[in-house]
């Protein structure tokens, strides 16, 4: 691929999503390559939050039932729209909780350990919170995590193979829970194939979509995934601490929520105030408490952008941006010791490129000084995520030039090679 600035500008002229950059607040002269950790604020998200604030100001408690977007059904209506992003039926998705809370809910609901099946399989490359949740859940069930939690091993420390996953699917396994995209390397797993393999052995399958929702099209229902959880503050741009999401296939909707709460009630009976729980029919049953409306409202504006742009267009541009970034790295930075650890194939790559380098922490600090926002992940990974909505090809080109200057002048050596408190 051509790696010149002229090529980047030509690509930008052909970009069908180029107009969306104006929808976001972009700091002047800053190249933001960290949307896989926290997406930038869109003007529509700001508007939807301000609208929710105004409804509280103007209506008080009547905001629960009055106005254009009554709070009582706010999450349910929004969830039907998010379902389109993950390829699910409208009643299979709920905007609620956080990743960790939703892991606890799904395991409490679907994990039924027996003498024969009491193992949950995870992987050794997963995000720590997922592992903490599984360990603590097993302890609550009276099980020893050292026995009842097993980890798929990685051959290279960056990726997982189907063979390694399948090897772990033994007769005593009840649930397999993996990330859709590995947060360090950006590897995209074959969710359909993995689900098929596990189901053939009577094992339920769940995925953490934190690093794929909003960047990769999903077909959760069609691929028969049993459950999924995710956040919305990365590629979905819902804001820091934004409400999370869960998916539970409709075949499991007969299950009582393991963690029952008032907002999991049938909406028509919720205010009967009965001590007998009347479960909602769909994924809404797996809500626990009152929705965090101020943490949910920005997602309404963000979802509008996905509905307008189309998730497949978002994915196509993301693949083109990351391929261009990869080509630039090879052409411009080949002599500086960077190792690209993200899988090459489009079908195996999420939305970011991961570079391993022994000086990664200090290089990231130097990039920040050069007005580039990257992401560092211990011990040695630099993650770079050009975002389809607000990154241009010229932005990618310029970012690599700034990184090249840092490496040529060795300005990174003025920084310590230790992560900041928040990396």
UniProtKB/TrEMBL annotation:
Pyridoxal 5'-phosphate binds at residues 99-100, 127-130, 208, 211, 233, 262, 290. Its EC number is 3.7.1.3. Pathway: Cofactor biosynthesis; NAD(+) biosynthesis; quinolinate from L-kynurenine: step 2/3; Amino-acid degradation; L-kynurenine degradation; L-alanine and anthranilate from L-kynurenine: step 1/1. The modification N6-(pyridoxal phosphate)lysine is found at residue 234. It is an enzyme of class 3 (hydrolase). InterPro entries: Aminotransferase_I/II_large, Kynureninase, PyrdxlP-dep_Trfase, PyrdxlP-dep_Trfase_major, PyrdxlP-dep_Trfase_small. Residues 76-219 form the Aminotransferase class I/classII large domain. It catalyses: 3-hydroxy-L-kynurenine + H2O = 3-hydroxyanthranilate + L-alanine + H(+); L-kynurenine + H2O = anthranilate + L-alanine + H(+). GO terms for molecular function: kynureninase activity. Keywords: Hydrolase, Pyridine nucleotide biosynthesis, Pyridoxal phosphate. Its cofactor is pyridoxal 5'-phosphate. Catalyzes the cleavage of L-kynurenine (L-Kyn) and L-3-hydroxykynurenine (L-3OHKyn) into anthranilic acid (AA) and 3-hydroxyanthranilic acid (3-OHAA), respectively. Belongs to the kynureninase family. PANTHER family: KYNURENINASE. Homodimer. This is Kynureninase.
């Amino acid at each position: 691929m051509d790696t010149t600035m002229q090529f980047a500008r030509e690509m930008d002229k052909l970009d069908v999503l180029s107009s969306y950059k104006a929808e976001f607040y972009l700091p002047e002269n800053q190249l933001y390559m960290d949307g896989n950790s926290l997406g930038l604020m869109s003007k529509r998200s700001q508007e939807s939050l301000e609208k929710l604030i105004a409804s509280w100001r103007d209506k008080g408690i009547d905001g629960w039932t009055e106005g254009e977007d009554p709070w009582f059904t706010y999450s349910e209506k929004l969830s039907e729209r998010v379902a389109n992003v993950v390829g699910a039926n409208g009643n299979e998705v709920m905007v609620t909780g956080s990743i960790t809370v939703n892991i606890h809910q799904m395991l409490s609901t679907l994990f039924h350990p027996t003498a024969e099946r009491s193992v949950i399989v995870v992987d050794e490359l997963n995000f720590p919170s997922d592992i903490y949740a599984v360990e603590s859940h097993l302890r609550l069930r009276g099980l020893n995590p050292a026995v009842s939690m097993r980890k798929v091993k990685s051959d290279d420390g960056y990726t997982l193979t189907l063979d390694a996953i399948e090897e772990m699917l033994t007769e005593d396994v009840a649930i397999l829970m993996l990330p859709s995209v590995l947060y360090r390397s950006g590897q995209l797993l074959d969710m359909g194939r993995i689900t098929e393999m596990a189901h053939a052995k009577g094992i339920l399958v769940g995925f953490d979509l934190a690093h794929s929702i909003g960047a990769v099209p999903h077909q959760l229902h069609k691929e028969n995934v049993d459950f999924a959880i995710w956040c919305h503050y990365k590629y979905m741009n819902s804001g820091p601490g934004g409400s999370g999401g869960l998916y539970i296939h409709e075949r499991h909707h007969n299950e009582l929520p393991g963690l029952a709460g008032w907002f999991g009630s049938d909406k028509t009976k919720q205010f009967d105030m009965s001590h007998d729980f009347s479960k909602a029919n769909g994924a809404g049953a797996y809500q626990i408490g009152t929705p965090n409306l101020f943490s949910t409202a920005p997602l309404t504006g963000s979802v509008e952008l996905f509905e307008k742009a189309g998730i497949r267009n978002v994915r196509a541009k993301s693949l083109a941006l990351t391929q261009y970034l990869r080509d630039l790295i090879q052409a411009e930075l080949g002599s500086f010791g960077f190792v690209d650890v993200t899988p090459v194939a489009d079908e195996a790559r999420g939305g970011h490129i991961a570079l391993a380098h022994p000086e990664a922490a200090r290089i990231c600090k130097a990039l920040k000084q050069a007005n580039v926002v990257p992401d560092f992940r211990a011990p040695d990974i630099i993650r770079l995520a050009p975002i389809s909505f607000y990154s241009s090809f010229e932005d990618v080109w310029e970012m690599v030039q700034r990184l090249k200057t840092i490496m040529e002048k060795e300005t990174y050596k003025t920084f310590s090679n230790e992560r900041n408190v928040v990396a």
